[in-house]
Write a structure and sequence with these properties.
The complex is a heterodimer of chains A (114) and B (112). Chain A has 114 residues and is an all-beta fold. Chain A has no helices and eleven strands. In chain A, 0% of the residues lie in helices and 49% in strands. In chain A, the strands form two sheets. In chain A, strands 2, 4, 5, 6, 9, 10 and 11 form a seven-stranded mixed β-sheet that branches. Chain A has a four-stranded antiparallel β-sheet with strand order 1-3-8-7, with no helix packed on it. In chain A, a hairpin with a 2-residue loop joins strand 5 and strand 6. Chain B starts with a strand and ends with a strand. The chains are: A mainly beta (114), B mainly beta (112). The interface between A and B is medium-sized, with 30 and 27 residues.
């Protein structure tokens, strides 16, 4: 199993540009999540999905959009990039029936907006 | 709401020293508790977890015990190595499909 994969690893955007961060998992997890990590801070939830076709906002959703058309994929869309979106983005997934509530993380995408 | 507080770093140790990173939490009920580790330039990896009071999680020489009475989950290792240099995150969760609640992370630097 590859686990949770993310592309790209690094990206530099200009203000106002758009991009999609890709996330895929091959563990048949029904739950998926997007977090951002800012320097000196823990991770904060942007969006999450409990299954294909179902998404919901997390703590910091402004400026982002998501979709979940398949169990495996959960892309994160930035429509009009702003410097405040400079961060490291992590995708994660989990089983709904895992009562330990562990989440499995991808390697991250480091995004800089200038 | 739920929250996690962990000791601020950086923590700087010599190889073979004893490590403690403090973590306390505020939460209703009985959350699962986790330690994640982030090595330089990499993503988060689960280091250990505990799901009920008095459980001890352990992995790679690291240990942490779920203390309900003190709402704590301190990370310990008896003898650190240079390869343990990383950022360590304490986290909690008590429902599937919800956010892991993270502390701010503690940077550990081990020198030989």
């Amino acid at each position: 199993n590859a686990g949770v994969t993310q592309t790209p690893k690094f990206r530099i955007l200009k203000i106002g540009q758009s991009m999609t961060l890709q996330c895929a998992q091959d563990m048949n997890h029904n739950y998926m999540y997007w977090y951002r990590q800012d320097p000196g801070m823990g991770l904060k939830l942007i969006y999450y999905s409990v299954g294909a076709g179902i998404t919901d906002k997390g703590e910091v959703p402004n400026g982002y959009n998501v979709s979940r058309s398949t169990t495996e994929d959960f892309p994160l869309r930035l429509e009009l990039a702003a410097p405040s979106q400079t961060s490291v983005y992590f995708c994660a997934s989990s089983y709904s029936w895992d009562r330990t509530y562990e989440q499995y993380f991808g390697p991250g995408t480091r995004l800089t907006v200038t | 709401g739920d929250s996690v507080t962990q000791m601020e770093g950086p923590v700087t140790l010599s190889e073979e020293a004893f490590l403690t990173i403090n973590c306390t939490y505020t939460a209703t009920g009985y959350p699962s508790l986790f330690w994640y580790v982030q090595y330089p330039g990499e993503g988060l990896q689960l280091l250990l977890k505990a799901t009920k009071a008095d459980d001890k999680g352990s992995n790679k020489g690291f240990e942490a015990t779920y203390r309900k009475e003190t709402t704590s989950f301190h990370l310990e290792k008896g003898s650190v190595q240079v390869s343990d240099s990383a950022v360590y995150f304490c986290a909690l969760n008590h429902q599937a499909g919800t956010a892991l609640i993270f502390g701010k992370g503690t940077t550990l630097s081990v020198s030989s």
